[in-house]
Amino acid sequence: MKLPRVLLAAVLVLVGMAMLAPPASATSKDTLTVLRIIDSNNYDPQRTAARSGAEVINMLGDTLVTLDPDMKTIRPGLAESWEIKDGGKTYIFHLRKDVKFHDGKPFTAADVVYTFKRWKNPKPKKPLAWRAGPLKDIKALDKYTVSYELTEPFNELLYQLTLFCATIIDQNNVEKLGKDFGVKGFNGTGPYRWVSWTPRNQMVLEGNPDYKWGPEFYANKGPVKVKKLIWKIVPEESTRVALLQTGQADVSQHLPLWAIKQLEANPKVTVQEFKPFEWTYYCGMKIDRPMMKDPKVRRAIVAAVNREEIANKLFFGQVYPAYTYYSEHAIDFDPAILKIMPRYDPALSNKLLDEAGWKKGEDGFRYKDGKKLTVLAYIFTSWRKEFEAIQGYLRKVGIDFQIQAFDSTVAWGKFATQEFDCWSMSYPYFSVGDALNLYFPSKNMPTPNRSNWNDPWTDEMLAKGKSAMDPKKRYEIYSKVQRKVHEACVWLPLYHCKMLVASSQRVGGVKTHGIYGCGLYKGIDLEIVK
Fold first, then answer.
1. Cα 318 to Cα 500: distance, rounded to the nearest angstrom
2. CB-based contacts of 524: which residues, under 8 Å, 6+ apart?
3. How many of the other CB atoms lie within 10 Å of CB of 359?
4. What separation, in Å, do the N-terminal and C-terminal C-alpha atoms of the chain show?
5. Which of these CATH numbers, 1.10.10.10, 3.40.50.1000, 3.60.150.10, 3.90.76.10, describes 38-190?
6. What fold is seen in the domain 5-29+215-223+235-275+500-528?
7. Does residue 408 contact residue 37 with C-beta atoms inside 8 Å?
8. Is 279-496 in CATH node 3.10.105.10?
9. pLDDT tens, position by position, for the chain (530 residues)?
10. Is the distance from CB of 524 to CB of 191 less than 8 angstroms?
11. 78 Cβ contact list (under 8 Å, min separation 6)
């Protein structure tokens, strides 16, 4: 028996209220509740790559440098200044002298050295260790000065060191907790302190009364004005919306797109969009598979899919159709690539397939040498609607697009195989180099270079681009690479996300950020105003 919509909404609100208490409700005058969809596997900066982990780690700890909300400018963090020497191979960081860990221990250069040596140690595996660059040696020159030496220049080092995975940690805390570091505790230098974590339920933090070294783009440098902050896991979309609209929760960036206009119309809720936000969803193509080898076939696939319609109909106009592999706001983006890949053009798609020798049979599908043009896609279960739309578009031009969906616990293992032609993926970035150097070097096959793009010229150019310390030279190099990989139609870009954050009337200081998709970043300006 189906419940009437009004009654169903009321039930959802009551369920949401029950989910948020105990230990504290959003109506507590000293507690702020943030809603999100999923939890992290842990909160060790170097052992997780999850955005859900980054969201909390950014608040628990600090990095040597920080990224301005313009997503381009590097600002001081735990390092108040730095020098770049030896043609970009050596960085000298001068540290703040007024920083303490949550337990009161003074922060020194020894903590920086320990953090990065642990990060670059391959045992156990650290998923984002490459972001620390080709580290040759790191040492403390004195108590508050660190020398960071690379084997070769890495022009994006400072950008990479703004990310949560470069958060400075306390050796004593790590050794005391062992495998439980980031599971049962975290002694950081950040604006909030660890209170408790109940996996798949909630993370409870409290304000750090000693914090006073917040990034300069925050109005408040610390301490924070929120006594207690709860990260609450609420997977169900309608429940999250109901909790925000009824004041049972305070903030969320995990908003169902169907509810955005509804939330914007509610005078008790404020929705902010952060720009520029750089997170792109795409359908990758494995170019060495039999059905994917011909560039004309890949180009035909791109031309067959109406990305504007997907953005408007499936995502209620709350995403931006993508015609490039990354946003035009990304550092070193070449505007010329906007004209390289075809837009929606079924006539062109059919023409390309005809030219490639794939002829339509009586069943409407295309055949060549007795073989059917069948493309197999491995996807996350949450991607069904966009891939079913792709399936429909490709069926119209005669391509049999088959879908196999996997839960995230299984999908990553499946994506590491060579069993499929296409796959679903999304990723954050801040520059063209950040994207290209992750997905297109041959050394990164078969993952994350799942396309198996194996091109010596690309490898050579990426190496030159990564080490070019002159921004103009770097741009010239990356322009050539991005043009080549777009002309090859290695991916079908689908859409660029919006960063949308909703907050209730009782919350002030919601200063949004785009770093690694963490909308609240350090949350230093947050306060309860009602």
1. 9
2. 191, 211, 214, 215, 218, 220, 221, 222, 224, 509
3. 12
4. 41
5. 3.90.76.10
6. D-Maltodextrin-Binding Protein; domain 2 (3.40.190)
7. no
8. yes
9. 444 443 444 444 444 444 444 334 445 789 999 999 999 999 999 999 999 999 999 999 999 999 999 999 999 999 999 999 999 999 999 999 999 999 999 999 999 999 999 999 998 889 999 999 999 999 999 999 999 999 999 999 999 999 999 999 999 999 999 999 999 999 999 999 999 999 999 999 999 999 999 999 999 999 999 999 999 999 999 999 999 999 999 999 999 999 999 999 999 999 999 999 999 999 999 999 999 999 999 999 999 999 999 999 999 999 999 999 999 999 999 999 999 999 999 999 999 999 999 999 999 999 999 999 999 999 999 999 999 999 999 999 999 999 999 998 899 899 999 999 999 999 999 999 999 999 999 999 999 999 999 999 999 999 999 999 999 999 999 999 999 999 999 999 999 999 999 999 999 999 999 999 999 999 999 999 98
10. yes
11. 62, 63, 64, 95, 96, 99, 107, 112, 168, 189, 213
